[in-house]
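[step 3/7] inverse_fold.run input=structure_tokens len=225
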């Protein structure tokens, strides 16, 4: 009887020992699983931050690559143009150049124009503005400020007055195009010295095609910033 009672007591202790070990194992396993879950969450958040995603439904930060590219594409560029007419040698031409907002040279152009006895200096200036804007537009610039030293032409373009001249209409259409933000402003002859020299250079051209100039000519260097 005593032996049976002792055996029951031992069996009971064995069961308690077994239960305690199982309980401890489950607790450890649970802790390991929780740690793994936390590590997985931290890893996912880190990957989201790397990819530029907004963690936990937050707002996407503005300082991403797309924002910077878009911002750079919309940098303002400056276009200065001038026309040149020399009736004595029956020649006409135009020229101009593109610079950054800080007036650093980007590139220039010259183009010889068809000469007729009735051609006026205002007409060569209109050609210079039109051809300069078309040239810059092909470069897919998004913001451009064009400058001319011809007050009469600048005033006619910007006044919106009724005008039958097709050149003025084309200039206005370009300035108002949805493809970019463009405007035409007045500048003094002194400030437009580089464009003036480029326009004179056009007289020596053989072709009537627009020629792009990579580097500024020597006689323009002293007038560039």
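[step 3/7] decode complete -> sequence:
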């Amino acid at each position: 009887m005593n032996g049976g009672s002792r055996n029951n007591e031992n069996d009971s202790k064995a069961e308690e020992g077994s239960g305690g070990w199982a309980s401890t194992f489950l607790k450890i396993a649970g802790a390991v699983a929780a740690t793994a879950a936390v590590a997985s969450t931290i890893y996912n958040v880190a990957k989201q931050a790397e990819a530029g995603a907004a963690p936990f439904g937050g707002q996407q930060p503005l300082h991403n690559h797309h924002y910077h590219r878009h911002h750079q594409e919309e940098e303002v560029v400056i276009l200065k143009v001038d026309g040149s007419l020399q009736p004595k040698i029956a020649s006409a031409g135009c020229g101009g150049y593109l610079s950054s907002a800080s007036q650093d040279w980007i590139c220039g152009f010259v183009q010889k124009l068809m000469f007729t006895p009735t051609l006026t200096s205002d007409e060569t200036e209109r050609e210079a503005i039109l051809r300069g804007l078309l040239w810059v537009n092909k470069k897919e610039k998004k913001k451009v400020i064009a400058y001319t030293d011809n007050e009469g032409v600048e005033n006619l373009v910007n006044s919106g007055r009724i005008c039958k001249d097709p050149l003025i209409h084309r200039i206005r259409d370009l300035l108002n195009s949805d493809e970019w933000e463009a405007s035409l402003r007045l500048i003094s002859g002194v400030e437009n010295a580089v464009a003036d020299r480029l326009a004179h250079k056009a007289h020596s051209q053989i072709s009537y095609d627009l020629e792009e100039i990579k580097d500024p000519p020597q006689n323009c260097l002293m007038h560039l910033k």
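[step 4/7] annotate
The chain is about 50% helix and 20% strand.
The two ends are 115 Å apart (CA to CA).
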